[in-house]
TrEMBL record:
Source domain of life: Eukaryota
Name of the protein this chain belongs to: A1pp-domain-containing protein
SMART domains assigned to the protein according to its UniProt record, in alphabetical order: A1pp (SM00506)
Residue span of region Disordered: 215-351
Residue span, Macro domain: 28-214
Gene3D superfamilies registered for this protein in UniProt: Leucine Aminopeptidase, subunit E, domain 1
Comp. bias (Low complexity): 323-332
Native source species: Aspergillus ibericus CBS 121593
Amino acid composition bias (Polar residues), ranges on this chain: 221-232, 269-280
Length: 351
């Protein structure tokens, strides 16, 4: 059964996640809280091709001609006309992004950003991976503003095949996003900026890092804060919020493999998140997902990219570091994709 589409109203803001205590404050946030920012930034673990938002951001490669991972999922779901449109774009540099139509996807546009290959760029300069990753997100946000996109959902660029460590990526991304939002010209430009994670490791990284850069409105619970005690009416909205939260889309249970892609072998790894502090907000809804790490064999899409005349076999590990990075995970959630989602009447509710 195909996974259902996810309307924007079902994608929780971090203000809601704080209110539901599914996102916990950091002990030492780095910035001032902002209600406006907390009503804009959103976290979800989902298949990005299902999100009914203005635009989604693909983790592409320099050719823009598709590949595995989220790139493959997006091309597969968008249909062959996306590839035809991309062929006319003449590729894209690492750290840059280009925009296309969404074709058969439920969103309006696709922004294709080319993230850094972590190990390769690190060998070229200690700060290169981070500056290129920041550039991907900044360029994507700029493109979205230029195209009047009010809601944007990012996949976790470079944290899959390209091997960027999830926590370091989340830190750079959230800091860069906050800096973008603080620029006077950009205030109010977005209704939603969504970080759509697919793998458990990225979901946990964002849960831990988001409170550093987007702290709850008032870390000490007070009447008006995200964590405030509930008044009668608040109790009502909080109850509805609980229902919304309980109906969050189930984490994807299969990694969208391209048709005809070689089978990949699985090894079970212990995700090991048991203590309360790193408890995923999905675990509140007894969604258990043992992420199965898969070794992506080198022939996943046989792509070899020339990076500045340095041929790089993108999907086959060339060093011990890359072995860790050339993995993709298949979230083999134990939950059933029963498509259980809220009724439309609940969606109409104004949070
Ligand atoms: N929805 C959302 N996120 C997804 C999906 C999906 N359907 N499928 C995978 N992801 C996540 C991965 O779990 C990872 O966190 O997207 C993130 C980026 O991983 P990759 O897709 O491997 O992209 P990246 O690490 O940037 O490597 C790019 O891989 O697929 C090829 O053509 C692509 O050569 C390029 C390289």
């Amino acid at each position: 059964m195909a996974c259902p589409l996810v309307p924007l109203a079902e994608i929780p803001t971090i203000a809601l996640l704080y209110k539901l205590r599914h996102l916990l404050p950091a002990s030492s946030p780095r910035v001032q809280p902002s209600k406006a920012f907390n009503d804009t930034i959103s976290l979800i673990r989902s298949d990005i091709t299902k999100l009914q938002v203005d635009c989604i951001v693909n983790a592409a490669n320099k050719s823009l001609l598709g590949g595995g991972g989220v790139d493959g999922a997006i091309h597969r779901a968008a249909g062959p006309e996306l590839l035809q449109e991309c062929e006319a774009l003449d590729g894209c540099d690492t750290g840059d992004a280009k925009i296309t139509s969404a074709h058969d996807l439920p969103c309006k546009k696709i922004i294709h950003a080319v993230g850094p290959i972590y190990g390769l760029e690190l060998r070229r300069g200690r700060k290169r991976p981070e500056s290129l990753l920041r550039s991907c997100y900044r360029r994507s946000l700029e493109l979205a503003v230029e195209n009047n996109m009010k809601s944007i959902a990012f996949s976790a660029i470079s944290t899959g095949v390209y091997g960027y460590p999830s926590e370091a990526a989340a830190r750079a991304v959230l800091d860069e996003t906050r800096k973008f939002m603080e620029q006077p010209d950009n205030i109010g430009k977005f209704e939603r900026i969504i970080f759509c994670n697919f793998e458990h490791k990225d979901e946990v990284a964002y849960e831990e890092i988001t409170p550093l850069f987007f702290p709850p409105e008032d870390q000490v619970p007070s009447a008006s804060s995200d964590l405030g005690p509930q008044s009668e009416s608040d109790g009502e909205s909080s109850k509805s919020a609980e229902i919304l939260a309980a109906k969050l889309p189930d984490p994807p249970t299969v990694d969208p493999a391209l048709d005809g892609q070689p089978e990949t072998k699985k090894q079970k790894v212990n995700t090991g998140h048991t203590d309360q502090s790193s408890k995923s907000y999905f675990e509140d809804f007894s969604i258990k997902s043992d992420d199965d790490w898969e070794e992506v064999d080198g022939s996943e899409d046989g792509r070899t990219e020339k990076l500045d005349d340095e041929p790089v076999q993108v999907d086959s590990p060339s060093s011990e570091n890359d072995v860790q990075s050339v993995q993709s995970v298949q979230s083999s959630g134990i939950i059933e994709m029963d498509g259980s989602h809220m009724s439309d009447s609940l969606l109409a509710k104004d949070w």
